[in-house]
Specification:
33% helix; signal
Length: 58
């Protein structure tokens, strides 16, 4: 009798898991924009590799 009950419990558990596993998820839409922005490549005012001022190093 206990084996018969265990099979039914296992079948119920399998059915519940199968129903839960059918989740399609959430559809997300992302909008990406581009904007130009002035960026300071040498915040110290000079090139740290060559030692020259940033205005001369262009």
């Amino acid at each position: 009798m206990s084996v018969h009950v265990s099979r039914w419990r296992l079948l119920k558990l399998f059915c519940i898991c199968a129903i839960i596993a059918q989740n399609d998820g959430i559809k997300r839409t992302f909008f990406i924009g581009i904007r130009e922005e002035k960026w300071d490549y040498a915040p110290g005012g000079y090139n740290r590799i060559s030692g020259k001022p940033a205005a001369e190093d262009t």
